[in-house]
Amino acid sequence: MTVLARKIRLIMKLRKAGITDASVLGAIERVPREAFIPPMFHDQAYEDTALPIGRGQPISQPLVVASMTQELRVNDRHKVLEIGTGSGYQASILAKLCRRVYSIERHRPLLATAEQRFNELRIRNITCKAADGMKGWIEQAPFDRIIVTAAAGDEPPPDLLDQMSVGGIMIIPMGRDKASQFIYRITRGETEYTYERLMPVRFVPLLPNIARNGPDRQEQGSHGQGAYAQETYEEEAYALPEHVPSDEEDDFFSGAQRFALQPA
Ligand code: SAH
Hints:
- With 264 residues, the protein is an alpha/beta fold.
- It is built from eight helices and ten strands.
């Protein structure tokens, strides 16, 4: 099957799964996902699956990227903050839809590779830094939209809540363990934050501080630093988190659960 045919098959699948926003589907069509993954996985670039990108980290599954982007309700006037640059794929999708993306990654080598890709693809509206994304990016705040692509525990990082503009939206996976993670949409009103539980997912954890060389112990994989061998990527592929389709997924497309919290 040609790359184009695979891409069309993926787009059809996303539409069937509830991605109806034409601008999101257009961005998925225009950003070459193969440019964000190691060559040995290029034949799987348009499968709906997460893939290893090194340092024990994955590029998210296309359906999860598309769903989170759609739920973020982003437009071309928005300033967006992403936590977890990873491969740079999600940031590149957002870059097609908004004014500017600020993206933070705690693994320096992943960030360096992602920035190289933005250059090669001539994507000019992404600004990145290596830092602990849980602290946000105070010099650039407030943000119209925030997307977190690693899982928080029970609560979103307080700095990220503070750095949302009024009327702003944050999309963030949360849950104490991998078996009970959900994407939440948090909307900041004048006096309160509204939380909506969207779809069940499995993300790698949001971890504090900048990573030292190699993956942290809490992260998947147990290899040290250095060049990645094929086996290492393959090991990681087995351990990858993925979107888990379940009965609860019906909630996602037929109206999410909604509840409101007062700010602390
Ligand atoms: N958005 C990425 C997928 C990211 S996987 C993509 O499109 O490819 C999650 C990423 O979050 C990993 O790269 C991990 O290193 C990063 N991460 C985890 N905790 C973080 C933190 N506190 N600050 C910044 N990045 C973090």
